[in-house]
Amino acid sequence: MADSKITSTIVQCDLDGCGWSQDISPSDVENWHNKACPKCGYSPIINDDDLSVFHVALGLAHLSSALDPCGDMPTETVTFNTKKLRESNHG
Ligand SMILES: [Zn+2]
């Protein structure tokens, strides 16, 4: 299988005023699920919704690899901000 095209994953604290964030490997996302923020203790840093969005993004990355096994197509950076997604759900 071709490599996933997810190149950067950032976990970020949702608490206003905390601002903690960290670059992690995509394979570490599951490890942050339902964990507390290391800076302020806000929990969860990644909730069930966040994990669902991540799995969708992972699926899209695999689909992209399947469509373009040689990596010839131009790449594009797509950012999923789960906090903004949640806010739009409730706003
Ligand atoms: Zn925090």
Descriptive report:
The protein is mainly α and 91 residues long. The protein has one domain. It has three helices and two strands; from the N terminus they run ββααα. The chain has helices at residues 29-32, 48-67, 82-90, and strands at residues 9-12, 21-24. The chain has a two-stranded antiparallel sheet with strand order 1-2. The termini are far apart. The mean pLDDT is 84. Residues 13, 15, 18, 20, 37, 39-40, 42 line the site of zinc ion.
Instruction: Report the β-strand fraction as a percent range.
Output: 5-15%
Total beta-strand segments: 2
Describe the largest sheet.
2 strands, antiparallel
Number of helices: 3
What sort of overall outline do the alpha carbons produce when their principal axes are compared?
elongated
Task: Tell me roughly what share of residues is in helical segments.
Answer: 25-40%
Domain module count: 1
Helices and strands, in order, run as EEHHH
Mean pLDDT: 84
Strand order of the largest sheet: 1-2
Oligomer state of the chains in this structure? single chain
Give the radius of gyration.
15 Å
Low-confidence stretches: none
Name the bound molecules: zinc ion
Distance between the termini: 40 Å
Q: Structural class given helices, strands, pairing? A: mainly alpha
